Amino acid sequence: QVCAQLCRRPCYCPWVPPRCPRGSPLVLDGCGCCKICARRLGEPCDFLHVCDHGQGLVCDYSSASAGTAGTCNFEDDEEGCEVNGRVYREGEVFQPSCKIQCHCLDGGFNCIPLCREDVRLPTPDCPYPRRVEIPGKCCPEWICEAQDQLLLRDARAVSPLLRQPCQEWGTEWSACSATCGLGFATRVSNQNRFCRLETQRRLCMARPCPAPPAAFPAVS
């Protein structure tokens, strides 16, 4: 009876299919006639405007009054989470990008970084370490930059790459990470070539560490 009321034969569809938002595929409507954008989690739905079955969604009329549209929900009422237009099931582990991994839990999601956030301090064989993006690799890596390259990069900071003068800004240097001996301090500053905020580090020493006690001389 519903098909007889809503579905016309032959089909009359727009010549060009609609452009769907990200995460919403093109599917056939409830009449199996025209291509439409599948409804996503939480969006209204009815017989014609179907939900995205590929993500396990069905049109839920349990909370709708008579004659009104339903809402796209999981078939088993299981909670999920939506990230960048895509719906993930409860308990599913996914990677929105190669740099983080997330876990869908209780309608939300928790993420952990997959790239190491280590700090490389200057050493005699690498006095100017710098972290850079490597083409073809997801995580940035540390490289050893020669002093002449470092000076050239600093000189470019006032080059015409920036359309307007950079208003320098930065936080105070943090306390030294070590209470004694060599450590490092951090700050956030835009004093770089592209005038972008970045975390900067420098070596520091609050005080020298006390010398270990001398061993007792052997008794002859």
Automatic annotation (TrEMBL):
<dbReference type="GO" id="GO:0005178">
    <property type="term" value="F:integrin binding"/>
</dbReference>
<dbReference type="InterPro" id="IPR000867">
    <property type="entry name" value="IGFBP-like"/>
</dbReference>
<dbReference type="GO" id="GO:0045597">
    <property type="term" value="P:positive regulation of cell differentiation"/>
</dbReference>
<dbReference type="GO" id="GO:0007165">
    <property type="term" value="P:signal transduction"/>
</dbReference>
<protein>
    <recommendedName>
        <fullName>CCN family member 5</fullName>
    </recommendedName>
</protein>
<dbReference type="InterPro" id="IPR036383">
    <property type="entry name" value="TSP1_rpt_sf"/>
</dbReference>
<comment type="similarity">
    <text>Belongs to the CCN family.</text>
</comment>
<dbReference type="GO" id="GO:0005615">
    <property type="term" value="C:extracellular space"/>
</dbReference>
<dbReference type="InterPro" id="IPR009030">
    <property type="entry name" value="Growth_fac_rcpt_cys_sf"/>
</dbReference>
<dbReference type="InterPro" id="IPR043973">
    <property type="entry name" value="TSP1_CCN"/>
</dbReference>
<dbReference type="Pfam" id="PF00093">
    <property type="entry name" value="VWC"/>
</dbReference>
<dbReference type="GO" id="GO:0005634">
    <property type="term" value="C:nucleus"/>
</dbReference>
<feature type="domain" description="VWFC">
    <location>
        <begin position="79"/>
        <end position="145"/>
    </location>
</feature>
<comment type="function">
    <text>May play an important role in modulating bone turnover. Promotes the adhesion of osteoblast cells and inhibits the binding of fibrinogen to integrin receptors. In addition, inhibits osteocalcin production.</text>
</comment>
<dbReference type="Pfam" id="PF00219">
    <property type="entry name" value="IGFBP"/>
</dbReference>
<dbReference type="InterPro" id="IPR050941">
    <property type="entry name" value="CCN"/>
</dbReference>
<keyword id="KW-0964">Secreted</keyword>
<dbReference type="InterPro" id="IPR001007">
    <property type="entry name" value="VWF_dom"/>
</dbReference>
<feature type="domain" description="IGFBP N-terminal">
    <location>
        <begin position="1"/>
        <end position="75"/>
    </location>
</feature>
<dbReference type="GO" id="GO:0007155">
    <property type="term" value="P:cell adhesion"/>
</dbReference>
<dbReference type="GO" id="GO:0031012">
    <property type="term" value="C:extracellular matrix"/>
</dbReference>
<keyword id="KW-0130">Cell adhesion</keyword>
<dbReference type="Pfam" id="PF19035">
    <property type="entry name" value="TSP1_CCN"/>
</dbReference>
<dbReference type="GO" id="GO:0008201">
    <property type="term" value="F:heparin binding"/>
</dbReference>
<dbReference type="InterPro" id="IPR017891">
    <property type="entry name" value="Insulin_GF-bd_Cys-rich_CS"/>
</dbReference>
<dbReference type="InterPro" id="IPR000884">
    <property type="entry name" value="TSP1_rpt"/>
</dbReference>
<keyword id="KW-1015">Disulfide bond</keyword>
<keyword id="KW-0732">Signal</keyword>
